[in-house]
Specification:
Blueprint: H1 2-8, H2 13-39, H3 45-87, H4 92-102
Helix pairs in contact: 1-2, 2-3
Length: 103
């Protein structure tokens, strides 16, 4: 949870995604600790199963959010590229057209 909160305040989607990946790895680490707790009889099998499944669903949700943000970023980048081509990049025929328009 702390990694998600820290990433949310990071200022960019790319940095937020980085922190989401850390959070996802932390959930995997938690699952590893569950195996240790089960092996040393600190938790019951039913508690292990419930907690492990909760961590699995959390990782799935985080993964889905990462995919959403990555697609959103890709969409922003492609819109910038399309806008640049639509407006012209200052070379070629667009530059000549702008020069004629000013006369």
């Amino acid at each position: 949870m702390a990694n998600i909160a820290e990433g949310f305040d990071s200022g960019s989607d790319a940095e937020f995604i980085r922190f989401l990946r850390i959070a996802k790895r932390s959930a995997t680490e938690f699952q590893s600790h569950l195996y240790s707790a089960l092996g040393s009889l600190q938790i019951s099998k039913s508690s292990f199963d419930a907690l492990y499944e909760h961590a699995r669903r959390t990782k799935s949700l985080i993964g889905g959010f990462i995919r959403y943000l990555e697609r959103s970023q890709a969409g922003k980048n492609s819109r910038k590229i399309r806008r640049k081509h639509a407006l012209g990049d200052g070379r070629g025929t667009d530059a000549g057209r702008r020069t004629r328009d000013r006369r």
